[in-house]
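Board notes (copied after class):
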Amino acid sequence: MKKINTKELVDKIERITRSKMAHQEVVPLGSFRELKKKTEPKVILVVEDDETMRAALKRILEQETSYLVKMASDASELARVLDDRAIDLLLLDIGLPWIDGFELGQILKEHKDLRYIPLVYISGHVTDTDLKKAFEIGANEFFQKPFDPEKLFKTVQHLLSLPKGPQFTSI
């Protein structure tokens, strides 16, 4: 066997790689994007001012490894956690400082990309007026603290399995 130097080795590897790549089927960009969407984790945005509750919600929601949970303690922290990734579900506490969960939910539901995103409210204090207001804003579910973690998790799974859009219905 002939010994080759490093440059010859790199050249040979590149030549073989190019040859094999030339015979590969080209995947259309649309198909690639669709596949990427399916493999990327679902993004859940949680806005909760209580640190202990935020940690508990993160643990509950990250049971499913295909969920990415973004956390904010109030509306002012949203800019820090939002990026170019689409949000797949909103989980909002009502009793937030400065901008409460109802006002924040309304603002988020007015955004063209978030309009049809499932919305789940959580609160320690719930009245009939709160429930009515939440569902008028577009909530799909409402949990009173303390809540059953398994029920919350199953609800989130269900909501994330539904198609997005105006045909979207709550459970």
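Comment from the instructor: Confidence is low (pLDDT under 50) at residues 167-171. The chain has seven helices and five strands.
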